[in-house]
Amino acid sequence: MARRTRGRRLITVAQRKTTDKVSVERNVQRPRHPRDHRHRHCHCAMPSPASFLPLTHDTLLILLALGDEPAHGYGIIRDVEVRTGGEVALQTGALYRTLKRMLRDGFIVGCAAPATADSDDARRRYYRVTRLGAAVRAAEIERMSRLVHAARLGALGKRPRLA
Questions:
Q1: By residue range, what is the domain housing residue 22?
Q2: Residues forming a β-bridge with 129
């Protein structure tokens, strides 16, 4: 039977036809745990960081740019540019699309401006890394270090082992 989504609830086509005047809550089937489930007020454990790997290049750079202190969009762009020696310049549209996806996945959250912020622009939105975001960042760094180690062994003529 085909399913159509209404927000986060999954309702079968047959149920939709029969629930015109009946309470929809009774006929709703909720998804188990989609990737955008935030685990804030939930009984389940935080998802495994490995389930999000590999990260996109931009996502990892943003997680590294946020580090331990909150930053706003332009600050993230500047940090990535400095961190990569000018090799990567995040475009504004790509940055905010990635931030939106990271908010949905629970890697980052919006927060108040830090006390050290020198801007008086109220429109700036600040972001900080969550525990899940920090765990995913650490897992991605570990994955990449294993790949680099394997590449170095391969260059020396040794057989690398990635597991």
A1: 1-34
A2: 108
- Reported in sequence order, the residue ranges of the chain that DSSP labels E, i.e. its strands, are 3-6, 9-12, 71-72, 108-111, 126-129
Q: Are residues 14 and 58 in the same domain?
A: no
Exposed / middle / buried, residue 10 (Cβ in 10 Å: 0-12, 13-18, 19+): middle
State whether 112 and 149 are in the same domain. Answer: yes
Parts of the chain with a pLDDT under 50: 1, 6-36, 38
pLDDT for 16: 47
25 and 98 together in one domain: no
Q: How many helices (H) and strands (E) does the chain have?
A: 5, 5
The rounded distance, in Å, linking the Cα atoms of 10 and 20 is 16
**CA–CA gap between residue 127 and residue 113 (Å, rounded):** 9
How many domains does the chain contain in total?
2
- What pLDDT was estimated at residue 119? 66
pLDDT value of residue 120: 66
Q: Are residues 13 and 58 in the same domain?
A: no
